[in-house]
Specification:
- This protein is an alpha+beta fold.
- It has three domains: 217 residues, no CATH class; 140 residues, no CATH class; 176 residues, no CATH class.
- 52% of the residues lie in helices and 13% in strands.
- It is built from 19 helices and 13 strands.
- Strands 5, 6, 7, 8, 9, 10, 11 and 12 form an eight-stranded antiparallel sheet that branches. Strands 1-2-3 form a three-stranded antiparallel sheet, covered by helices on one side.
- The longest helix has 45 residues.
- It is flat.
Length: 593
């Protein structure tokens, strides 16, 4: 019981962290179903083991008929029920549990301040899987000593169902972003080529297809990455359901990937064809139905391929029958039975001690984490704040709005975006977003970063500055300055992220790399209200001139000390919009690593 409580709490912490990703990132919306499927596959494997044991008397003939000739999983075929030796003894080593327990303490400390970091999710998921198998292996080893190995499955039988949770963990940014960009550009290029064959002129610009009637953005949904991730989950699940061998499962995954890429190319072609005939405004009515159709076809295709392979038994090869050999742990005489009792008497106290130690450790770790952040955040006093004076009646001033997908991904509470032309001919664009206090505020604010948004729109990053400071009316605002390469010349971007109600800004202590998130352990969990301010300029060649223009000529006259600290709306003029979002250069790619 103590072990079950400890494991239940760790799995709760894992799912509680992943639910932010599952709720806010459409690519991982399928994650809500994965824990249920894990539990179902554990039960399914246990039930198949019991059926195999029951049919041993007739030589396994009834089992083969019940499976319609399908072959059981590789783990079950080769597994011989063993006592606490071999792999089981190595895995049950206390050193393994100690390493996993220490890893849990470290990852919980970092997770509390970084609930969006994929490295944290992966580490915690691996710890939960490892400790679940560790405790499960011990419980099954003792059950084998008590009830005999004939009625107790080996712990290796449950490795796949427990580890299946990993398909719902977000891919690290350093892996997913290159895949997203490569697939998006390949999809854009292929769509442009096919449109040319059909007599529809089109020109690719990064992730945007320019038509005679306007522009069509190819976001990550159309890249195929969302379908690929969902297809991977379905392929592995259907392979388990149909008892395919490892080669059969790889074939199902490959077929699913091909279906996902082909379906999303067809979706892109459909949307661009609609835009070419009826204009860009007509895409809205076709976007979601086309995406749902692709997803449904991928799901049906993966199921059909796996069912076909199960019937043909061709992909994985004809495997040997499910060997149900007599195990070393079965009782065959008084001497062996006495040895089992002695082993059980030795193991049972140790198992109970390990179970209680796990429960005490989990409680102590979470209490220590809560105490640490309470102490850190209690020392972060309030400081001065600023408000923004928006441009009015500037030359060619326009309000900008972006795709619904980007707005849904950022989930901002307030925001506005303006573009105008200065008197000297330079084009400026200002974007401002706010997230109300909450656990996801820091996660959502960090998801809007020039390092991700600009390269996604075919503006490669050339360099990024260290943290610098803008001082105005006693307010010190940390910022970074970026330079991106564009077809018509460089684009320079000024960027800051501001935590409301604190004097020391965590953004000032962040490095430019992924390990900057470790600084959050000393800066707090970032649950205060968050603001992001971005100012970009086109038409300036030299970075020093661009920074002087943005800081001295624009920002210092548009930022001022907030006179009413309790006020939540930083607009000093202009309406607050719930629908204004990031510029066209950002279609919602996440900077989570």
């Amino acid at each position: 019981m103590p072990a079950a409580v400890a494991l239940g709490w760790m799995w709760f912490r894992l799912v509680d962290g992943l639910r932010l990703v599952w709720s806010l990132d459409p690519r991982y919306a399928y994650g809500w179903a994965v824990p249920v499927l894990c539990a179902y596959m554990v039960w399914l494997r246990w039930d198949r083991w019991r059926e195999a044991c029951a049919c041993r008397a007739d030589g396994g003939e009834s089992e083969r008929k019940a499976m319609n000739g399908a072959q059981p999983p590789e783990e079950a075929k080769s597994a011989e029920a063993t006592g606490p030796g071999g792999w089981a003894r190595a895995f049950l080593s206390p050193a393994v549990a100690a390493v996993l327990a220490l890893a849990y303490a470290g990852v919980r400390l970092v997770q509390e301040a970084n609930p969006w970091w994929s490295l944290v999710h992966w580490t915690l998921a691996l710890v939960c899987v490892g400790l679940t198998l560790w405790y499960g292996a011990g419980a099954l080893a003792m059950a084998r000593l008590v009830g005999g190995s004939d009625r107790t499955p080996p712990w290796r039988l449950f490795v796949f169902p427990v580890a299946f949770i990993l398909v719902a963990v977000p891919w690290p940014y350093v892996w997913s972003e290159p895949v997203i960009q490569a697939l998006t550009r390949a999809n854009t290029w292929a769509a442009v080529e096919l449109l040319g064959w059909w007599g529809i002129p089109a020109v690719p610009h990064g992730n945007v297809i320019e038509l005679a009637t306007g522009q069509v953005g190819v976001d990550e949904a159309c890249s195929g990455i969302r379908s690929l991730q969902g297809t991977l989950m379905l392929a592995l699940f259907f392979g388990e359901m149909h008892l395919l061998g490892w080669r059969g499962r790889l074939a199902v995954v490959a077929a699913g990937f091909a279906l996902a890429l082909a379906g999303n190319l067809a979706r892109t072609l459909l949307l661009t064809w609609v835009a070419a005939r009826e204009g860009g405004s007509a895409i809205e009515a076709w976007h979601d139905p086309a995406g749902l159709t692709v997803l449904a076809l991928c799901c049906a295709g993966v199921w059909l391929v796996s069912a076909r392979l199960a019937c043909g038994k061709g992909s994985g090869g004809v495997q040997p029958e499910w060997r149900m050999t007599r195990a070393r742990g079965s009782s065959e005489g008084p001497g062996e039975d006495r040895t089992h009792r002695e082993t059980l008497e030795t193991m049972l106290p140790r198992w109970r001690m390990a179970a209680w130690a796990g429960l005490v450790w989990v409680v102590a770790v979470d209490a220590a984490v809560a105490g640490w952040y309470a102490r850190v955040e209690s020392g972060r006093g309030g400081g001065p704040d600023w408000e923004l004076v928006w441009p009015e009646n500037e030359k060619e001033q326009i309000e900008l709005e972006v795709s619904r997908a980007a707005g849904e991904l950022l989930q901002y509470d307030e925001g506005r975006q303006v573009r105008w032309r200065r008197a000297d001919g330079k084009v400026c664009q200002m974007s401002w977003f706010r997230w109300r206090p909450g656990r996801a505020a820091g996660y959502l604010a960090k998801s809007h970063s020039p390092v991700v948004c600009m390269p996604a729109a075919a503006f490669p990053l050339e360099w990024i500055s260290e943290v610098r400071w803008l001082v105005k009316d006693g307010v010190r605002i940390p910022y970074r300055f970026y330079r991106f390469r564009g077809d018509a010349g460089p684009v320079h971007v000024w960027y800051t992220r501001w935590e409301e109600g604190v004097a020391e800004q965590s953004f000032a202590r962040e490095t430019a790399g992924p390990w900057s998130r470790l600084s959050s352990v000393w800066m707090g969990r970032g649950r205060q209200g968050q603001r992001v301010l971005v100012l970009a300029v086109w038409g300036v060649t030299h970075a020093e001139e661009a920074e002087r223009l943005l800081v001295e000529e624009e920002l210092k006259r548009r930022l001022r000390l907030r006179r009413s600290p309790g006020e939540t709306n930083p607009f000093s003029n202009g309406p607050v919009s719930e629908r204004w979002a990031v510029p066209a250069v950002s279609d919602g790619y996440r900077s989570d690593d």
